[in-house]
Amino acid sequence: MELFVFVCAAAMVVVGALGVILRNHPVHAALSLVLTLFGVAVLFVAQDAHFLAAVQVIVYSGAIVVLFLFVIMLLGVDTSEDLSVEPITVQRPLAIIVGGGLLGVLVTALVHARGSITADTGTGIAIPTQTGDGDANIKQVAIDLFSDRVFAFELLSVLLIVAVVGTVVLSRKPPKKDAR
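User: That's the sequence. What structure does it adopt?
Assistant: Structure tokens below.
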């Protein structure tokens, strides 16, 4: 029975992944991604990782794919546009400058942090021994996230802001010229 579930889930993942890269219509590709994510969730259930399966379905299949579909509908990729017309003429040179600056900051941060990177497994987060102190786990996660991993957390927030600004800029249509 386990082999049958694995084969069916693996087939869902492979067919969905092929659908993501082979479909021409972006909505169909997003729906193929949902099939892939559900297949991965089934594989999590087969490994008795029920929480990960629920997170896979709720977060990825529910939220992320809905976000993809929202961006697809917002941008209106069904219509063909003339890509030779540049609506914002300074965006390419500005993107090169900003990209070079971000690359410089990343290289500087990596060179600066080179000595502090270690390969040990770490100690993990301390689990409280008292049964009545339920907030201790939250405090430990907050301390770990906002002290040791604050750079990665802030980098993720910058990435999300860039994605939102990029979506807004791409969704803007160039002004129509009057035919007078």
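The chain has six helices and no strands.
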